[in-house]
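Input C-alpha coordinates:
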Protein backbone atom coordinates (compact mmCIF):
# COMPACT_ATOMS: atom_id res chain seq x y z
CA UNK A 1 0.00 0.00 0.00
CA UNK A 2 1.36 3.42 -0.98
CA UNK A 3 1.87 5.50 2.17
CA UNK A 4 2.58 8.78 0.40
CA UNK A 5 -0.99 10.20 0.66
CA UNK A 6 -1.06 9.36 4.39
CA UNK A 7 2.29 11.09 4.85
CA UNK A 8 1.07 14.17 3.00
CA UNK A 9 -2.09 14.34 5.11
CA UNK A 10 -0.09 13.97 8.33
CA UNK A 11 2.28 16.70 7.15
CA UNK A 12 -0.58 19.09 6.45
CA UNK A 13 -2.21 18.36 9.83
CA UNK A 14 1.07 18.95 11.68
CA UNK A 15 1.60 22.19 9.75
CA UNK A 16 -1.92 23.41 10.62
CA UNK A 17 -1.46 22.50 14.29
CA UNK A 18 1.96 24.15 14.46
CA UNK A 19 0.63 27.31 12.85
CA UNK A 20 -2.17 27.46 15.41
CA UNK A 21 0.27 27.07 18.31
CA UNK A 22 2.53 29.77 16.89
CA UNK A 23 -0.33 32.24 16.49
CA UNK A 24 -1.62 31.46 19.98
CA UNK A 25 1.86 32.04 21.43
CA UNK A 26 2.18 35.31 19.52
CA UNK A 27 -1.22 36.43 20.82
CA UNK A 28 -0.21 35.62 24.42
CA UNK A 29 2.98 37.69 24.07
CA UNK A 30 0.96 40.57 22.64
CA UNK A 31 -1.46 40.39 25.58
CA UNK A 32 1.37 40.48 28.12
CA UNK A 33 2.98 43.43 26.35
CA UNK A 34 -0.32 45.33 26.26
CA UNK A 35 -0.89 44.71 29.98
CA UNK A 36 2.62 45.89 30.87
CA UNK A 37 2.14 49.04 28.80
CA UNK A 38 -1.24 49.66 30.42
CA UNK A 39 0.19 49.25 33.92
CA UNK A 40 2.99 51.67 33.05
CA UNK A 41 0.46 54.21 31.79
CA UNK A 42 -1.69 53.95 34.92
CA UNK A 43 1.36 54.44 37.14
CA UNK A 44 2.32 57.56 35.19
CA UNK A 45 -1.27 58.83 35.30
CA UNK A 46 -1.21 58.46 39.09
CA UNK A 47 1.79 60.80 39.25
CA UNK A 48 0.08 63.29 36.94
CA UNK A 49 -3.07 63.30 39.08
CA UNK A 50 -0.96 63.99 42.15
CA UNK A 51 0.69 66.88 40.33
CA UNK A 52 -2.67 68.57 39.65
CA UNK A 53 -3.99 68.08 43.18
CA UNK A 54 -6.28 65.07 42.76
CA UNK A 55 -5.25 63.49 46.03
CA UNK A 56 -8.72 62.31 47.06
CA UNK A 57 -9.09 59.37 44.68
CA UNK A 58 -9.33 55.59 44.33
CA UNK A 59 -7.49 53.56 41.68
CA UNK A 60 -8.18 50.16 40.14
CA UNK A 61 -11.70 50.17 41.55
CA UNK A 62 -14.35 47.59 40.57
CA UNK A 63 -17.87 49.02 40.79
CA UNK A 64 -20.86 46.71 41.11
CA UNK A 65 -21.39 43.13 42.20
CA UNK A 66 -23.95 41.53 39.92
CA UNK A 67 -24.26 40.83 36.23
CA UNK A 68 -21.26 41.82 34.12
CA UNK A 69 -23.32 44.56 32.45
CA UNK A 70 -23.79 46.25 35.85
CA UNK A 71 -20.08 46.19 36.72
CA UNK A 72 -17.13 48.32 35.65
CA UNK A 73 -13.43 48.58 36.41
CA UNK A 74 -12.28 52.18 36.84
CA UNK A 75 -8.65 53.28 36.42
CA UNK A 76 -9.09 56.24 38.77
CA UNK A 77 -12.09 57.82 40.48
CA UNK A 78 -11.48 61.34 41.78
CA UNK A 79 -13.65 63.21 44.26
CA UNK A 80 -14.31 66.85 43.40
CA UNK A 81 -16.31 69.19 45.65
CA UNK A 82 -19.62 68.50 43.91
CA UNK A 83 -18.98 65.61 41.50
CA UNK A 84 -17.00 62.47 40.82
CA UNK A 85 -14.45 62.31 37.99
CA UNK A 86 -13.98 58.99 36.21
CA UNK A 87 -10.48 58.99 34.69
CA UNK A 88 -9.77 56.39 32.00
CA UNK A 89 -6.06 56.16 31.13
CA UNK A 90 -4.72 55.25 27.68
CA UNK A 91 -1.01 54.79 27.05
CA UNK A 92 -1.24 54.94 23.26
CA UNK A 93 1.13 56.14 20.58
CA UNK A 94 0.72 57.05 16.93
CA UNK A 95 -1.50 59.45 15.00
CA UNK A 96 -5.13 59.17 16.11
CA UNK A 97 -8.20 59.94 14.02
CA UNK A 98 -11.05 59.84 16.56
CA UNK A 99 -14.57 58.77 15.63
CA UNK A 100 -17.77 58.33 17.57
CA UNK A 101 -17.49 54.55 17.93
CA UNK A 102 -13.96 53.75 16.76
CA UNK A 103 -10.59 55.46 16.69
CA UNK A 104 -8.09 54.82 13.92
CA UNK A 105 -4.42 54.81 14.94
CA UNK A 106 -1.63 55.17 12.38
CA UNK A 107 1.83 54.19 13.58
CA UNK A 108 5.17 55.55 12.41
CA UNK A 109 5.74 52.49 10.19
CA UNK A 110 2.50 53.18 8.31
CA UNK A 111 0.48 50.37 9.90
CA UNK A 112 -3.06 51.25 10.94
CA UNK A 113 -5.31 49.71 13.58
CA UNK A 114 -8.86 50.46 14.67
CA UNK A 115 -9.84 50.44 18.32
CA UNK A 116 -13.07 51.06 20.16
CA UNK A 117 -13.47 54.63 21.29
CA UNK A 118 -12.13 54.99 24.85
CA UNK A 119 -14.70 57.75 25.32
CA UNK A 120 -17.52 55.26 24.83
CA UNK A 121 -15.81 52.89 27.26
CA UNK A 122 -15.40 55.65 29.84
CA UNK A 123 -18.98 56.90 29.43
CA UNK A 124 -20.23 53.37 30.07
CA UNK A 125 -18.15 53.21 33.25
CA UNK A 126 -19.55 56.57 34.36
CA UNK A 127 -23.09 55.31 33.77
CA UNK A 128 -22.41 52.27 35.95
CA UNK A 129 -20.98 54.50 38.71
CA UNK A 130 -24.00 56.83 38.55
CA UNK A 131 -26.43 53.90 38.70
CA UNK A 132 -24.85 52.61 41.93
CA UNK A 133 -24.29 56.01 43.51
CA UNK A 134 -27.14 58.28 42.36
CA UNK A 135 -27.55 61.94 43.11
CA UNK A 136 -23.99 62.97 42.25
CA UNK A 137 -22.82 64.00 38.76
CA UNK A 138 -20.12 61.75 37.30
CA UNK A 139 -17.77 63.52 34.89
CA UNK A 140 -15.84 61.53 32.30
CA UNK A 141 -12.21 62.18 31.39
CA UNK A 142 -9.95 60.12 29.09
CA UNK A 143 -6.31 60.84 29.88
CA UNK A 144 -3.80 60.14 27.08
CA UNK A 145 -0.40 59.58 28.70
CA UNK A 146 1.49 58.07 25.75
CA UNK A 147 3.07 59.69 22.69
CA UNK A 148 -0.18 59.78 20.74
CA UNK A 149 -1.03 62.78 18.56
CA UNK A 150 -4.41 63.74 17.16
CA UNK A 151 -4.92 64.37 13.48
CA UNK A 152 -5.31 68.09 12.74
CA UNK A 153 -4.86 68.66 16.51
CA UNK A 154 -8.53 67.81 17.02
CA UNK A 155 -9.02 66.49 20.57
CA UNK A 156 -12.61 65.41 21.34
CA UNK A 157 -14.42 66.85 24.34
CA UNK A 158 -13.80 64.71 27.40
CA UNK A 159 -10.26 63.80 26.29
CA UNK A 160 -7.13 65.42 27.66
CA UNK A 161 -3.38 65.05 27.32
CA UNK A 162 -0.64 65.38 29.91
CA UNK A 163 -0.43 69.08 29.07
CA UNK A 164 -4.15 69.81 29.44
CA UNK A 165 -5.00 67.59 32.43
CA UNK A 166 -4.61 70.42 34.96
CA UNK A 167 -6.88 72.73 32.99
CA UNK A 168 -9.64 70.11 32.70
CA UNK A 169 -9.46 69.18 36.37
CA UNK A 170 -9.57 72.80 37.51
CA UNK A 171 -12.75 73.37 35.50
CA UNK A 172 -14.44 70.40 37.15
CA UNK A 173 -13.29 71.41 40.62
CA UNK A 174 -14.52 74.98 40.07
CA UNK A 175 -18.09 73.93 39.22
CA UNK A 176 -20.60 75.87 41.30
CA UNK A 177 -22.46 73.69 43.79
CA UNK A 178 -24.88 74.16 46.64
CA UNK A 179 -24.22 72.90 50.15
CA UNK A 180 -26.76 70.14 49.53
CA UNK A 181 -24.91 68.97 46.41
CA UNK A 182 -21.61 69.00 48.26
CA UNK A 183 -23.14 66.99 51.09
CA UNK A 184 -24.49 64.46 48.60
CA UNK A 185 -21.03 64.12 47.03
CA UNK A 186 -19.45 63.61 50.44
CA UNK A 187 -22.04 60.99 51.39
CA UNK A 188 -21.66 58.95 48.19
CA UNK A 189 -17.87 59.20 48.33
CA UNK A 190 -17.91 57.76 51.85
CA UNK A 191 -20.02 54.86 50.54
CA UNK A 192 -17.57 54.27 47.67
CA UNK A 193 -14.57 54.26 50.03
CA UNK A 194 -16.31 51.73 52.28
CA UNK A 195 -17.07 49.61 49.22
CA UNK A 196 -13.47 49.80 47.97
CA UNK A 197 -11.96 48.60 51.25
CA UNK A 198 -14.50 46.10 52.54
CA UNK A 199 -13.66 42.45 53.06
CA UNK A 200 -14.98 41.35 49.65
CA UNK A 201 -13.14 43.91 47.52
CA UNK A 202 -10.45 41.50 46.30
CA UNK A 203 -13.03 38.79 45.65
CA UNK A 204 -15.12 41.19 43.54
CA UNK A 205 -12.10 42.16 41.47
CA UNK A 206 -11.29 38.50 40.75
CA UNK A 207 -14.92 37.75 39.92
CA UNK A 208 -15.04 40.64 37.47
CA UNK A 209 -11.85 39.47 35.71
CA UNK A 210 -13.15 35.91 35.51
CA UNK A 211 -16.43 37.06 33.98
CA UNK A 212 -14.59 39.19 31.44
CA UNK A 213 -12.36 36.25 30.56
CA UNK A 214 -15.35 33.93 30.13
CA UNK A 215 -17.11 36.43 27.90
CA UNK A 216 -14.24 37.51 25.68
CA UNK A 217 -12.12 34.39 26.12
CA UNK A 218 -14.97 32.31 24.71
CA UNK A 219 -14.99 34.53 21.64
CA UNK A 220 -11.24 34.04 21.23
CA UNK A 221 -11.60 30.25 21.42
CA UNK A 222 -14.37 30.35 18.86
CA UNK A 223 -12.06 32.32 16.58
CA UNK A 224 -9.28 29.75 17.10
CA UNK A 225 -11.73 26.94 16.36
CA UNK A 226 -12.83 28.55 13.10
CA UNK A 227 -9.22 29.19 12.17
CA UNK A 228 -8.30 25.56 12.84
CA UNK A 229 -11.14 24.27 10.67
CA UNK A 230 -10.21 26.68 7.89
CA UNK A 231 -6.53 25.70 8.04
CA UNK A 232 -7.26 21.98 8.11
CA UNK A 233 -9.59 22.44 5.14
CA UNK A 234 -6.83 24.15 3.18
CA UNK A 235 -4.44 21.39 4.22
CA UNK A 236 -6.81 18.71 2.91
CA UNK A 237 -7.15 20.54 -0.40
CA UNK A 238 -3.36 20.70 -0.61
CA UNK A 239 -3.16 16.95 0.11
CA UNK A 240 -5.61 16.19 -2.69
CA UNK A 241 -3.64 18.32 -5.12
CA UNK A 242 -0.34 16.75 -4.12
CA UNK A 243 -1.85 13.27 -4.29
CA UNK A 244 -3.17 13.91 -7.77
CA UNK A 245 0.22 15.17 -8.87
CA UNK A 246 1.97 12.20 -7.26
CA UNK A 247 -0.33 9.59 -8.80
CA UNK A 248 -0.10 11.28 -12.17
CA UNK A 249 3.69 11.17 -11.93
CA UNK A 250 3.60 7.47 -10.97
CA UNK A 251 1.50 6.66 -14.00
CA UNK A 252 3.70 8.66 -16.34
CA UNK A 253 0.97 11.25 -17.01
CA UNK A 254 1.99 14.90 -16.94
CA UNK A 255 -0.74 17.17 -15.61
CA UNK A 256 -0.88 20.58 -17.25
CA UNK A 257 -0.56 23.59 -14.94
CA UNK A 258 -4.05 24.58 -15.98
CA UNK A 259 -5.56 21.59 -14.17
CA UNK A 260 -4.30 22.84 -10.79
CA UNK A 261 -5.89 26.20 -11.38
CA UNK A 262 -9.14 24.43 -12.24
CA UNK A 263 -8.98 22.46 -8.99
CA UNK A 264 -8.40 25.64 -6.99
Amino acid sequence: MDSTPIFLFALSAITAFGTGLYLKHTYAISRRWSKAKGDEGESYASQLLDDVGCYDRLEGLVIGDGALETMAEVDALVKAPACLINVETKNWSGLITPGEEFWEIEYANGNKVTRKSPLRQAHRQSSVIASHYPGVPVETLVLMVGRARFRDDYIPAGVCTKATLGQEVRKMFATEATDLQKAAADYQWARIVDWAFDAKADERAETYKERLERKYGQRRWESWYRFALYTIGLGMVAVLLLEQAYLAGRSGVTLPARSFLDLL
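The beta strands are 57-63, 72-79, 84-90, 94-98, 102-106, 112-116, 138-144, 148-150, 159-161. The chain is about 55% helix and 20% strand.
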